[in-house]
Structures are given as structure tokens and as C-alpha cells.
Amino acid sequence: MRIRPYLLLLRRNPSFTRLYAAQLISFGGDWFATVALLGLALELTGSAALASLVLVLQSAPFFLASPIAGVLADRLDRRRLMVMADVLRACAALAFLLVRDPSMLWIALLATAAISALSAFFEPTSSAALPNLVDEDDLPVANVLLGSAWGTMLAVGAAMGGLVAVAFGRDAAFLLDAVSFALSAALIVGIRRSFGGASAPPMDVAQGDEPSDARGGSQPPGVVAAMAEALALARHSRSMAAFLLAKSTFGVGTGVILMLAVFGATVYGAGDVGIGVLFAARGLGALLGPFIARAVFGFDERGLVVGIGVALFLFLGAYLLLPLAPGLAVAAGLVFVAHIGGGAQWTLSTTGLQRATPDAVRGRIFSVDYGLVTLIATLSTIVAGVITGNLGPAAAIYALAVPAAIAAVAWVIWTRPLRRRNGATLPE
Questions:
Q1: Which one of 74, 82, 220, 312 is least enclosed by Cβ atoms within 10 Å?
Q2: pLDDT-wise least confident of 14-18, 21-25, 53-57, 174-178
Q3: Could you give the CA distance from residue 372 to residue 198 in angstroms, rounded to a whole number?
Q4: Nearest to 188 by CA among 117, 133, 115, 131
Q5: Which of 26, 279, 25 is nearest to 165 (CA)?
Q6: What pLDDT, on a 0 to 100 scale, did the predictor assign at position 218?
Q7: What angle do CA 294, 295, 301 make, to 5 degrees?
Q8: Radius of gyration of the CA atoms of the chain, in A
């Protein structure tokens, strides 16, 4: 696995390097806060259902804000939109410092929801902007680096987050989360290359690919109509639809991630440190997954589709074995393997969607992409929390495995025509 292409990109493209550094820093802060927040919820209430609510509030508001965020990402300056989201997330993160007893836990839940909603204006916008910040030939390398950034800081942030929470208290982890958003904003402000979006009018799919403003000066449609335009374009492209649905297919089984907190803190009795170890294993797998995917499958269209299919079943198979793990070390190994698949499919589907989608609608398409997976992951997490509370964590994993397997098989069958192509459509 050669690292030279990745180092060269970071060296010659300072705009991408700033974005990459901003993502690293904010992801690290996120996981410091997540580990501490899950530990706080379990300590104050002893409820796995409430811990699942924390994860739900990290995703459901994201889904609700996505339609508006997607339209704004295509109509406004994407850099300014991301900076504003970072500044507001930093303010929201400071609210965690106010929580001192169970009666104040609602403040942490409200702050979690606010950060989630604001992230809908940052994450999809970043993915939509990336093809404008790097050359076409560098897009696979850039996506691997950004995909691994999430995993890198999950591994580092989760492991250190657990240790910091134990050594210095949870307030230190929450404060670092707020600082990370501020540093991310400062880095993005300094990017001078165009993010795209602001000058890209909406597309009239029924009439072709020319911007409607160029033909008749019509006014941009409202949020619902603008999102409908983007989805109509996706319906006419099997490639775009396949990559758009890949993360959502993966999301059907992601409620099992709640089990990392339950297994780490209660099943193995390791508290915040146990949660941190399992989340770190998740991050390490997500870190390596994009690199392995590029080396094994490549980034032509057929490679992207085949790689996503393999990744889906790798994730599902490893989590099915988790209840059989005799201890924390074996459990961490299984989580690591599962999230090699998770990290691979995220990077592969993101790259495919960026290539298949015009810049004029890319913000909306990525908001739909991220919004769908967060909605499905939210529902999956709710189910996991309810089943865990009534039947235990092992039963929750097995209950989620069946619909996840059905969704994965359906996606693989539906994308069969794409696997038959010769790969020339999306050259690496």
C-alpha cells in the first residue's frame, strides 16, 4: 500500500491540505465528546435506551436539516456555509459543560441535537465541494485520505477520549470538542480555491442538463422543488442511484454500533475505557478500509460497485460474531474487521457519487445521501436500544442482522448491470 500519492497530494494542494486538517481536528473533538457523553448518560441513568437516544440525537436532526442544507450548499458560498456551521457547533459544544446531574441531562441532549443539525450544513457540503478542490485524477486519493481521517480520529479520539475522561474529567473532553470546531473554521477560512456551489443554478432535468437560468431566467425553485430536481436526475442514472443508496443500505444494520457502548461499559465492565477501546477499534478499521479498498478494488465503476458489496457483507459478518467474543480484546478485533468494510464502502460510494453527479446539484444529492443514511441509522439505533433493554445486546445484534442482510442482497442484485461494465465509465 503506497503512501507516496497521498503525501504528494497534501504537499502540492494546500487547499485540500487545509480541508483535510480541518476534518481531522473536528473529527477528533467529536469522538472525545461522544465517548464522554455516552459514559455520562450511562453513569447518570444506567439506561442503554438513553445511551441509544444520544446516538439517535447525533443523527435524526441531521436528517431533518438535510433538505435545507442541500439547497443552500448549491446556492450559497460553500466555504462560508461550512465556517458558519463550525462556529455555531463550537458554541453548542460548550453547553455540555453545564451538565452536572440527571436533571440537567436534557441540556446535553439538546446540544447534541444542535450539533447534529449543524453538521448537515458541513459534512455533505464538504463532500460536494471536494471535486472542485482537487483535480479529477486526484479525487480517489483525496477521498481515501478524507475517509481515513474519520477513522483516524475515531481511533485516536475515542481511545484518548476515554483516557482523558478518566484522567481529567469529562469536561476536558467537552471543551476539546468546542475548540476543535473553532480550529476547523479557522483552517477553512484560509482556503482560497473555489468550493463551487454559489454560481451553480438548479437543473431542469426534464429539459436536459442546462441550467434553467441560462435558458429563461426563471427563479430558483423552493426547497421541495429543488430537492425534487436532484432526485429526478438520480432516477435517470443507475450509477448515481446505486451510489446514492449504498450508504443507506449499510445504515440498516448500523444500530449495532450502539453495542460498542453497551459491550464496552457493561458486558465487559470496563466503563469509559472499554467504550473507548471498542470505538478506537472501529476507527482503526475505518482508517484502513479506504486504503485497502483502493488497493484491492480500484476506483473504476465496476471496482466501486464490487467493493461496496464485499464491504457490506464484511461488516455484517463480523458483527454477527461479536456476541460470541469472550473478552474485550477479541471484541475489538471483530469491530476492527467490521469497520474495514464500513470505511471502505463509505469512501467507495462517496467517490462514485461525486463523479456521477453534476456540481449544480451535488450539494442536494449529498444531502439526500447523508440524510437517508442518518434517518435509517436512527431507526436502526432506536430498534437496537429497545431490544437491548428488553432482551439484551446479543438479541439486538441478531435482530438487526436479518433486515441488514436482506438490504445488502437486494443492493447487490440491483447493481448487477453495473458490475458487468468494463470499468471505462469512471477511470481512476
A1: 220
A2: 53-57
A3: 24
A4: 133
A5: 279
A6: 46
A7: 45
A8: 21
Give residue-wise pLDDT tens across range 324-362: 888 888 989 999 999 999 999 999 999 999 998 888 888
Which one has a higher pLDDT value, 13 or 420?
A: 13
Residue 242 and residue 239: Cα distance in Å, rounded? 5
CA distance linking residue 9 with residue 12, whole number of Å: 5
Judge whether 99 lies within some domain. yes
Contact criterion met (CB below 8 Å) for 205 and 233? yes
259 within some domain: yes
Please indicate, yes or no, if residue 378 is contained in any of the structural domains.
Answer: yes
Residue 404 lies inside a defined structural domain of this protein: yes
**pLDDT higher at 278 or 219:** 278
- The whole domain housing 115 covers 13-196+226-419
Contact 284, 151 (CB under 8 A): yes
Number of domains making up the chain: 1
pLDDT at 5: 86
Q: Is the pTM of this model over 0.85?
A: no
β-partners of residue 310 are none
Sign of CA dihedral 136, 144, 234, 366: negative
**Closest C-alpha among 83, 120, 3, 50 to residue 366:** 120
